[in-house]
Description:
With 305 residues, the chain is of the alpha/beta class. It has helices at residues 22-33, 52-57, 72-75, 83-95, 127-136, 181-203, and strands spanning 10-15, 44-49, 105-111, 117-122, 143-147, 165-172, 212-222, 234-236, 253-257, 262-264, 272-274, 288-297.
Amino acid sequence: MIAIAKPIKQVAIVAGTHGNELTGIYLIKKFERFPHTIQRKTFNLKTLLANPKACELGKRYIDRDLNRCFSSKDLTDPTLKSYEEIQAKKIDSLLGPKGNPKVDAIVDLHSTTANMGLTVILTNNHPFNLRLAAYLTTVHPLVKVYRWLSQSELDSPFLRSICELGCTVEVGAIAQGILSATLFEQTEQLIYAILDYLEAYNSGVAIDVPPTLVLYQALELVDYPRNSSGELQAMIHPQLQSRDYTPLNPGDPMFLTFEGETIFYQGRSTVYPVFINESAYYEKSIAMCLTEKQEINWSTEEDKV
Ligand SMILES: [Zn+2]
């Protein structure tokens, strides 16, 4: 059974948290022009471009990654005054405050240069979110579920952590600053599926959701090989490039140095890398995130945290 009994009354669809991820930005613009496409009978829906200045300039951010500004500590720190830090506080007062929000669910739209298809990102183990994700895997074969758990939602720096329910949608591969009609339409359909699910949930309409869910649990972030000055010494190996969500076994090629030497994966077990060669993560010292493929029963998962 789902642990929440209360209906979803307020939903926010957010995009442009990163100003160069055009898929979500142009979807929001479309939804604002054609509101009937996203209106449903049982809840109110708000759309939001989270980082308008970055969207205008087509940049990921102005001063700081907005999607790392939403920990409770940062939101309540009056000394943080960069553009994104102020913007995060504005969004928190609009949708939040975090922990006691005005909205019941947030869907935050992103895109990635990694080949991650239609990824649904979960950042907590709420059975409502797990069940929603299990449902979405039945909607399109490209849908994958990636789970990143912070110590607590209060520590989570992501915009979506303002409220407990909802998900982040991460679509790719697509370069920053461009649109792909195929990905645009697939993402649009995924959003309609989420909204229809919420509507059915509110209306008490039975939806067929598989009892188990395959998800990719984040284990570890891996940086590129670098020298002592921090300069890159290798690239993603061609055999690994674009192979997000496929098994990486001990001894498989991982990086290729500029001299042509292969660096192999040294781990002990098979992992499933995601965010492989994500352009925005070079500055974060992340070449990929290693995940473990798990099949879980969504209705009992919450007990494990
Ligand atoms: Zn993003």
